[in-house]
Every structure is written in structure tokens, then in C-alpha cells.
Amino acid sequence: MPSPQTLAVIDTTRPADTQPHTLAAALATEFAATAAHYDRANLFPHDNIRRLHEAGLIGHALPMELGGGGANLADALHIVRTVARGEAATALVLALQYSISSRLGHDTPGWPRAVRLEVARDIARNGSLINALRVEPELGTPVRGGVPATVARRNGDGWRVSGAKIYSTGAPGLTWMLVLAHSAEAAPRVGYWLVHRDSPGIRIVEDWDHLGLRASASHKVVFDDVPVPGTHTLELQPAGSPPVADPHGARWGGVLIPSVYDGVARAARDWLVEFSTTRVPTNLGRPLSTLPRFQEALGEIDALLLSNDRLFAGAADGSVALKQIGQLKHLVTTQAIAVVERAVQLTGNPGLTRANPLERHYRDVLCSRVHAPQSDFALSSAGAAAFAEWTDGGQR
């Protein structure tokens, strides 16, 4: 494994498609060494993002012709899950980055080509981050419906955006913000206004003080009459209409976000193995790993992770249908939580001691429950669709 100082150097003796995975593994080790610091200090890991850019991984999901690595979903999944084993918040930022940036090489409905190229070049050259800011204090998540209070008003050829977004993952590090808003028009439209961080009128309220993923810096962002060019309006639809269909983004986001928590679970599993093989209680006289209950528990944990592996493989190769991605998220994250809970149960006080990383993994993995679609929504939607299919004559 290369040292941190050589991470940005391409090894031409290694097949090109394996190089990013090697870099990600080395960076995960590096990030693990500072993860507790960022967690306790509640700080965004700017240095981690810089290191990812130096390794060519921030833009890895961009097409090669736009300066990226041309990663497919399986490749992006591997990298995000690997980085998550080192530091979960960095991996979440990367998952969201890949979910959006992987679209920029496609003829995406509602995205002007010039805008796609502008953002892609900025990512490739500067390692710029992009994320969608959708959740609001009053509305909550828009996945369950409703019109955002954030408003865009016409201003000559452009717009002025005002409102507030909460749970804005990676806020201090974002260059591009996809701000969900409605237009102040006679017939309002809902969509995204693409805002650059250097625009006047943006204020970050550092209010993120969460149980887990503390380094994600998911602060509140306030927009006060922020100017946006007329060309930077994306996916506008009449208010109340279904959002623009985005099967690519739905699959990538639906796979990569759960992969963060699978990576956390694997880090917890590895810590448990190390602890169990090195801990020798004096009244036992041999490592905890020799006890049948520890062996059975590790077998159970590995079975859960094997299940996640198979689910991810099916999602990456398309054998898990797009309509099943919500169920995949529920299964993967539920099993990831179970892995970490089992490790905590086995290790007791050492597992919950802040000097050990397991308690951080436990706090981080619980955050998987808040990402859309939440389990109740994913399962009820899948159940309703299954009943409808049966009623329409699709019974098996």
C-alpha cells in the first residue's frame, strides 16, 4: 500500500482500473487516524476532501472526456464503501458527489449542456463539491410531498433566491448548491436553482450538533436574495407535478448512500476481530476469539455483510430493479446497524468507550435511518405497488 505522500502519483505498472481502489484503501487508513478528532471537534474534514482530489477521486465519477475517471456504479460503490471504513462523513460527502457528478456526462433532462460542462470542469480541475439542498425547517424532506418555502423571484434575465435549508451535508465545503425552490410566478414551478458559493447573500449557520456523522457539517444554509443566472435553473416543473424522472440518480444515490453505512459496519467488524483476538482476560487465559459465543457472533456478522454484498452486486449489475432500490436501502442499513449493535453487545464497556472507534461507528451507523427513503416510506410504497400489481393481474 503506498504511503500518503505518494497517493497522487499514478503507478503505471498497475492496471488503471485497480489504481483508484488502491488509493481509496490508503486514504481510508489515513482518514481513520484523524476521524476521532473531526468527530469530537464537530469539524468538516477539508483535508480529507483535498486528499481525495489529489488522488483523482473527487471527480472519479465524471466521464473521462470531461476529465474524470469514468467510474461505473460498481467502481463508485467500492470506493465509497472503502472510504467509509476510514471516516464516514467524508464517505457520505463522496457518495452524494458521485450521485450528482456521474450525471454530468449524460444528456440529462432539465440540465442545459453548458451548465453540465461548467460544473464538470470545475470538479475535475478544482475538486469542487456539489450537493442538493432540499430539506427545510417547516417542510422537512420533500420526498413525502409539498412545495418548498424557498422562493426564486425574477430579476431581469436571472433570479433572486431566498430561503433556508437544513441538514445541508458538507455545507462548508460545497462549491455548487442545488437549491430546491419554487418560483414566484402566476403559475409557480418547482425545481433547482444552481447557486455558486461565492454568490452574495449566502450564510452558513453552524448549528449541526448531531449524535453521529458530526464531521459532515450538515449546517443550516440561509439564502438572502442570492443572484442566480437565468441559465442555472434546472428541472423546473409546475408545482404539484411529479419531479423530473432521474433513474440514473435514483439508482446511484440509492446504492451509494447505504454503502457508506455498510462501510461503517465493516470497520466495526474489523475492530471487533482485532479486539477479540488480542484481549486475553486473566481469568480466561486465552483470547476472547476462542470462545464459541464470539465465534458464532462473528459468523452472524459476516453473514449479514455477505447479504449486503449480494444486494449491492445485484444493484450494480441491474438485477435489482430500480423499484426495489428503496427496499435495498432498508435491508442494507438495517443489517449494518445489526452488525454494529452485535459488536457493541459483545464488547460491553470497551466498545462504548470513546477511546475506541466502535462507539463512533455505532453513532454513525444509526444515521442511516434518516436518509430518504426512510424504511416506513420505502416499505409501504413497495407494498402498495405489489398490491396494485396483483390487482392488475400480475399475481405470481
Query: What is the radius of gyration computed over CA atoms, rounded to a whole number of angstroms?
Result: 22 Å
The main β sheet shows up as: 8 strands, mixed
| Number of beta-strand segments | 8
Q: Please mark out the parts with pLDDT under 50 across 5 or more consecutive residues, or reply none.
A: 1-17
Shape: globular
Instruction: Give me the strand/helix succession.
Output: HHHHHEEEEEEEEHHHHHH
Total of helices = 11
Secondary structure category: alpha+beta
User: What is the CATH architecture annotation of the largest domain?
Assistant: Up-down Bundle
Strand content: 5-15%
CATH topology of the largest domain: Butyryl-CoA Dehydrogenase, subunit A, domain 3
Helix content: 40-55%
CATH class of the largest domain: Mainly Alpha
Instruction: Give the distance, in angstroms, between the N- and C-terminal Cα atoms.
Output: 51 Å
Query: CATH homologous superfamily of the largest domain, by name?
Result: Butyryl-CoA Dehydrogenase, subunit A, domain 3
Mean pLDDT: 92
Count structural domains. 3
Domain Acyl-CoA oxidase/dehydrogenase middle: 136-226
Domain Acyl-CoA dehydrogenase/oxidase N-terminal: 24-101
Domain Acyl-CoA dehydrogenase C-terminal: 263-372
Keywords: Flavoprotein, Oxidoreductase
